Amino acid sequence: MSSPLHILYAWDRQLPTTATDAEQATSTLAALSRRGVQVTLLIPRGLDEAGMSAHEICRHYKVDGEFRVEHVATPLVSRIALRKAWFSAYAATGKLPAHDVVYTRNSATFLALSGRGARVVYDTHRAWPDHLPPLKPLFKWAMTRPSFVGAVFHSDYARKAYERLGIAPERLATMRNGFDPARFSSALTPAAARAALDLPRDRKLVVYTGHISALKGLGSVLALAAHNRDALFLLVGSEGDGSVERAAQKHDNVRVLPWQPYDVAAQYMVSADVLLLPPSAVGLKVAGHTVLPMKLYGYLAAGRAVLAPATPDVAELLVDGDNAVLVPPADLDAAARALEALLADDPRRARLAARARETGKELTWDARAEKLEAFIRARLRL
Fold it and tell me: What is the pLDDT of residues 276-303, one digit of tens each?
């Protein structure tokens, strides 16, 4: 029988937040804990705040797990740059709770831990060496130190950026993100979802879920709405009055809806005739962070037809004509025509939806946690 594995999950994010990495982090640590891994979450809190407890985190993010939470009292905690600097400096002191390995998705914390020779696993979706080449020497230094346990990436696209630095392949692993099956029960049908959300039953629905930002390529979605005026476009995830929200007011077939709890967002996904990843490369090439976006796993689990850009990261999971329709990311006319044809072809959408669900069925958080634990144990030789 293997000995218990104790992971210290060091994360410089103040909770609660609607940021996508919060869903990824809380789902990951909860799934690890369900496997019997002892997980301690280390997060910052304000000097005059109690900080969220494990119970409050589980309730807020609707995850099921048993883990501990410890807080780092942090001055000016709402200032992102200062919070990150304080947290990484704290990690570098070595005054951390007991653990076998530190797990982090924060690059500053990863580099600080590497500097003091801590055993660390780095989890990232970012291809930093490609996006910010001046960082190459730092990451190569950290990932060639004897104390470096390994790194897990959300895509082959990201992993290969670090392989090109000359990092030993056995220290690098692709582990895609996942979804929670409980949010996509068999009772959640498109008709039931539309009824619950008070959406029209007889109009084609095109749905995007996630943060509403021009950096997510949402301008391309508005262009599709202008071409496909008979369809109703739902953009679910607004948290303010930004440029996309203002531009959407010019389209009478676009509704911008506020950020929704994860189970409600799942209902919007299931209600759709077509689920959209914006047909743009802005997030991947310019922002540098939208790599195999988290929403895609929910889209697959929802079992609906998906239209997405043919970017190298997305193409790792989606195959044009098999489980999705892929379009050139810079050709809005082609994307508009593809969407129009897809909306007009019910049998084709049904075939794509069935294949999408089949593609996603094994991409759960529990499946990821099993691979993650095995990788860490193999690297630590536990």
Answer: 999 987 766 654 455 789 999 999 999 9
The model's pLDDT over 105-141, given as tens digits with 9 standing for 90+, comes to 999 999 999 999 999 999 999 999 998 999 999 999 9
Residue 230: count of CB within 10 angstroms of its CB: 10
Q: Taking the model in full, what pTM does it have?
A: 0.94
Asked if residue 132 lies in contact with residue 150, where contact means CB atoms within 8 angstroms, the answer is no
The structure tokens listed for 197 are 């959300």
Q: Across the chain, how many H-helices and E-strands are there?
A: 15, 13
Domain match, 370 and 346 both: no
**Is residue 229 classed as helix, strand or coil in its secondary structure?**
coil
- Whether 228 and 215 share a structural domain: yes
Whole-angstrom Cα distance, residue 100 to residue 51? 25
**Whether residue 202 sits in one domain with residue 136:** no
Q: Which domain holds residue 54?
A: 6-178+364-380
* H or E stretch covering 110: helix 107-115
Distance (Å, whole) CA 9 – CA 274: 37
The span from the CA of 113 to the CA of 92, in Å, is 5
Cβ neighbour number for residue 361 with a 10 Å cutoff: 14
How far apart CA 180 and CA 244 sit, in angstroms, is 29
86 is written with which tokens? 């304080």
